[in-house]
Amino acid sequence: MKTSEFLLIVMASIFIFACTPSPTEGIVSVIDLHSNAPVPNAEVEIFVDDPANEFDGFYLCNEFEPTKKMVYKTNSGGVTERVCFKLPAVLKVSVKAAANDTIFTGKTGSTTLALEEGETTTVVCKISN
What we know:
Layout: H1 2-18, E1 24-32, E2 43-47, E3 69-73, E4 83-85, E5 90-96, E6 108-114, E7 120-127
């Protein structure tokens, strides 16, 4: 009897954990094109490609309304925090170096973040003058 109870608990646990979806996350890494150095405190804007369409947007975890754009800062290693999305999406990323950064001032760049459901996608954006 105890063996069957144990197997039932194990099977229920496997079912619960197997049905829990992995989060869809995006990370943006910013580096300087010429020196390959990470760019700290860069402003990273994530947005939809067609702002003219009022229904376009993307869904962040724990949000119920579509978001048109979000702005993040890179850490000392030139990387944003993990951004959690409810759904897969293809988003534009625009980056500019911090205005008070003497090394990277005026440098900008852009790329595309293509999110896949249940995966963490990291995109590298190289900035230059």
